[in-house]
Amino acid sequence: MGMSAYLRNIKDAATTIADGMAITLSHFVRKPTTVEYPDRLPDGVRVQDTLPFRYRGMLEVDLEICTACLACERACPIDCIVIDAAKDKAAGGLVMTRFDIDMAKCMYCGLCSEPCPTGAIHHTPEFEGADYSLESMVRRYVKAPTVAYKPKKAGEDDPRIAPILDRGMRYIAEFATPDGPSGDS
Amino acid sequence: MQELVDGLIASGVAPADVPAWVHYLTAMLTFGGLVVFGFVLPIAGITTWVERRVMARMQSRIGPNRTGPAGFLQWLADGIKNLLKEDIVPLAADAMLFKAAPYVVIVGFVLTFVVVPFSGDLIIADLNVGILYVTAVTALVVVGILMAGWASNNKWSLLGGIRSAAQIVSYEIPAGLSIFPVVMLTGSLGMQDIIRAQGAAPWTWYIFDNPFTLMAFFAFFVAALAEGNRTPFDLPEAESELVAGFATEYSGMRNLLFFMAEWGNLYVIGAIVSTLFLGGWQIPFALEGSPVLRNALQFGTFFTKAYFFVFLAIWLRWTLPRIRVDQMMVMCWKYLVPIAFVNLIGTAAWMVLFPAGVPLVRWTLTAVAAVLLVAFFWRVRFHLKHAGLTGQQLSFNPLSTTRVTW
Amino acid sequence: MPLDTAAIHARLRERFGETIGDLNGVGRDAWALVPPGDIAEVARFAHDDGELGFDCLSNLSGVDYPKDEAIQVVYHLFSYRDRHWFVLKVNAKRDDPVVATVSGVWPHADWQEREVFDLLGVRFDGHPDLRRILMPEDWPGHPLRKDFVEPEEFHGISTSRESLLRT
Amino acid sequence: MGLAGFEVEVQRETESGLVTEDMTLSMGPQHPSTHGVLRFIVRADGEVMKEAIPDIGYLHRSIEKIAEKVGWHGFLPYTDRVDYVAAMFCNHGWTMAAERLAGIEVPRRGEYCRVIADELCRIHSHLLAAGSMAMDIGAFTPFTHAIREREYLNDLFEELCGSRLTFHYMRIGGVGWDLPPGWAEKVLTFLARFETVVDEYNRLISYNKIFTERLADVAVVSAEQAIGYNLVGPNLRGSGVAYDVRRDDPYSVYPELDFDVPVGRGEMGTVGDCFDRYIVRIEELKQSCRIIRQCLRQMPDGPVIAKVPRNFKPPAGDCYVRLESARGDMGWYVVSDGTAFPYRCKIRTGSFAAISIVQAVSRDIMIADLIAVIASLDLVAPEIDR
Question: Which residue in B177, B136, B182, B181 sits closest to B276, CA to CA?
């Protein structure tokens, strides 16, 4: 190693180290990018409320608009959805006795919500899924036998169901279709 | 210290019928205990908090913020947690050595405080071999680390211990050689003598005495970092290679002792560097009349200088990668040792040629340092501008927790 | 110079005659069958030949065809020099699958053959270090065979989790 | 697996007749620098390694077997898990294979969406590679800077497809969602800022003297060796072979895009050393930015997904598709027997090839260098084991 290479090594080391230190010092006066999750969030807004509409968090089922078509059960690649529904003339259509989702098994792929005709099964921005046992991760949506929803040709007029259906259809509209641009983009 | 006790005896505060050495011993033990428990341990702990907050901001994070105001009590919580943890001794370890190693390390580190000059009067013992004593007792640390690495009976720990031994033994040489120019200029090894030979103004410090002492300052700081196992020389613990190296098998309080020594050592490095090169506790006023105020100001000055180097070490650690073991040796033997010898001979020649020193050189060196410092801050400003940051994205409050928005 | 698959096939035929099977398929996926014992020689030629210059074995996979009583090993050859492709297939007997190794030709084949050995049980004759690569050393059977049945438990650890849904 | 099967030579005699023992170290499966669960059996003489023998399989999840059990659509979310650091490419590979078997043409806007997502994912993955490279060499701050930028990308992905890591964005025939309104502007804002961050990153770490000294001339892989071991992507280009599937065997809309293929130039030492492999990734970050800008400018309107039946049954046959993933040329050999389930799916990944070369290049280097080699090859354990 010649003398010039020797001195160049010292010079390179000194300048690059000084430049690196200038960068870290410049970060010292930049604001941090993290938030103090979960309890000290900016303006007190929960993280869930800042997530986009498409966010694939915990699954949620709006039983009011579920048609019991079983499309989600068929679409699920890991069989974590189970629906029991039977025709019941007296009740006037399909009656669901079971709609269970094993959230411990769910891989949040969204394949179930895609074929849903009403957007009844959809992902929510809720992601805080820690629990104490696997059993408690099983979500059982049918508490008592429920009559499946039947879409009305003229549109929904029940003020209780209309907003839920509206949200569901909005969720469905986000998915791309072969017919053309989806959503409002 | 001796004068202080003498004064107390003379004034009758301390009973005169007891032999004087009892008073000396009592005073030293009291002050020593005060220093260790009131200063050394808290400073090591608080430095961990400072390091974590500083590093967090350099990494666009917030850092510990839950325990106490701005997370300040985090160090205490960590200490208590470590105390309550199980002290695990691996079955295959050499139990006695394994248990003893942390004590050897901590003793080697705490003993250095005997000669740390906190202020003009506050020093446990102003030994006439002061700086030599420091280099001697810090060598105990390497014994402890090697013991820990060997006794753990873990191959990774052993590698860490060997690295540490090689590193500390090698870097003792440039560190020692870089002390000599200052010792030669002072003509004494005593810490207080070295400080008293300097003044309060930067151009009276040894760092700017001549070009060789300036180089010796850098060489000493680098070698001291290496002796303290700090990045870029943290090879003995190298998380990504040796998985904490010599400390892998330690848990609880014993692990804490290692880390206390490491962080406390930062302050020792700062204290010695400021003593040797930066005028120590020197203040511009004599303040003969009020020893308390004088000592307080001196203490503050010394602490600020020493803690700046703690900050510098932290800053370096969170900027630089780690060098490889062969490069560590190359750096020592091919770069630092020759440079240290040049400094030694250069200073000797300088003393022969200019026995009274050259004020012009002192002022020039001080001015050059000031210009470099300004250039550095200009570079910091350049980086901020290059990133396209506006005032809204900056915060000069080191404890700021507001999130940046784009 | 890049050759099309027909030319590559012709070149191989020229050297090995009827050992190389007919050209099947079109375009990129066109392939020819080679007997299991001759593949090493064919590979060596494809690698060394000045015109073919297949310096890279892009992929080596095994497929189980219980209906044909065969395990097929598929070699995707690629030439970085000439940027052309060819696919060779080898049908090994399913009850005793032995194929000559090509690991001496392309170092990449070493691990790929170990994987095929591990998952499909094809033994590569002449392979320097034919050990399981993904599965544990003592795993029973070869998982990618169509008739593989997963053991109920392995070293006392259950391999399945009870479904919580049908309770 | 113990040490059985590894023929480790333990005792050696030096020239002077002194008998010395090599140290056998087990590095991993739980080691901070093995990026997942990899294991190396290291035979070392002090700090100098004689050999590092990779031992893989700790993250084997039998994804190729799962492919045979779930349908063509149903396997798509599983491909996210093949290489979870760059899930978009695995999505792309599987959809490309299925489309080729069934002869489906993807709408042009769909292809553009795919390329944008791919390139964002490439940045995403290279950032992690560059960041963990710095961390393995001992600098922690650059890692967090890289992760910080990756976090902004995660936010973009989250808005695009609802997920931050396992995207499941593509579908057979196109993509699952069109770009959300206002998303393109957010991407452009990010890119404008991101390019300055890359400069800053280079100043902070890439050209730092300690860093370059650690990487230069370590584990040099020659071009012949790289091709023989089938190294792909940045690892291959680091050895000086200018081959990029996007340019040399184009798929999707890459022929319409203008970009450079960076190759290793031996800037700090020899061509094919760790630094070259590293710096190629850094330069690719900027190329990806260029591609995304062009895509956003050029992309046409229209549908983003073709009509594909839910009960998808491609005709019998086999195909081999390749695409340039973040870790390079990724090969998908897919066999269909005409049923609703794939007959066989073999995924040839870049990391699998890259780890097989470790044993060959790890002779007589330091233990610390092994970490640099692992990081420079950008080994991602799930992709190796699948």
Answer: B182
